[in-house]
């Protein structure tokens, strides 16, 4: 997964966080303990869901020019915890 993504303020987009490279073949995600956006951001977590190896995070909002940091933390069936962070840059229009 790339560490920087781009969205528009009006977008409602999903981002998949693949934990498979940190999991052993006999382990799986048991719970999502945290899905958050850094304080002060106007990007918001709209929803999240998970499978045995992937967490899907839905984000909405944001102000053009802002870069938000999103944090996802999971606990596995075998008691491991893993935190992953990624950034979302909010841009107006269709420019990259």
Strand and helix map with partners:
Blueprint: E1 4-7, E2 12-18, E3 29-37, E4 43-50, E5 54-61, E6 67-76, E7 81-90
The fold-level CATH name is: Immunoglobulin-like
Q: State the strand order across the main sheet.
A: 1-7-6-3
- Head-to-tail CA distance between termini: 18 Å
Total number of helical segments? Answer: 0
Global mean pLDDT: 94
What is the β-strand count? 7
Tally of separate domains: 1
Overall 3D form: elongated
**Over the alpha carbons, how many angstroms does the gyration radius reach?**
14 Å
What's the CATH architecture name? Sandwich
Instruction: Report the helical percentage.
Output: under 10%
Largest sheet: 4 strands, mixed
H and E string: EEEEEEE
Strand content: over 45%
Q: Quaternary status of these chains?
A: single chain
Poorly predicted sequence stretches spanning 5 or more consecutive residues: none
Question: What's the short story on this structure?
Answer:
The protein has 96 residues and is mainly β.
Describe the structure.
With 96 residues, the protein is mainly beta. It has a single domain, classed as Immunoglobulin-like (Sandwich). It has strands spanning 4-7, 12-18, 29-37, 43-50, 54-61, 67-76, 81-90. The strands form 2 sheets. It has a 4-stranded mixed β-sheet with strand order 1-7-6-3, with no helix packed on it. It has a 3-stranded antiparallel β-sheet with strand order 2-5-4, with no helix packed on it. Strand 6 (67-76) and strand 7 form a beta hairpin. The model has no long low-confidence stretch (mean pLDDT 94).
């Amino acid at each position: 997964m790339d560490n920087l993504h781009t969205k528009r303020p009006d977008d409602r987009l999903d981002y998949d966080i693949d934990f498979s490279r940190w999991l052993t073949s006999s382990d799986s995600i048991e719970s999502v303990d945290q899905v958050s956006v850094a304080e002060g951001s106007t990007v918001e977590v709209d929803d999240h869901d998970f499978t045995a190896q992937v967490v899907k995070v839905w984000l909405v909002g944001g102000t053009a020019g802002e870069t938000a940091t999103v944090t996802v933390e999971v606990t596995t069936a075998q008691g491991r915890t893993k935190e992953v962070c990624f950034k979302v840059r909010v841009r107006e229009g269709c420019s990259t």
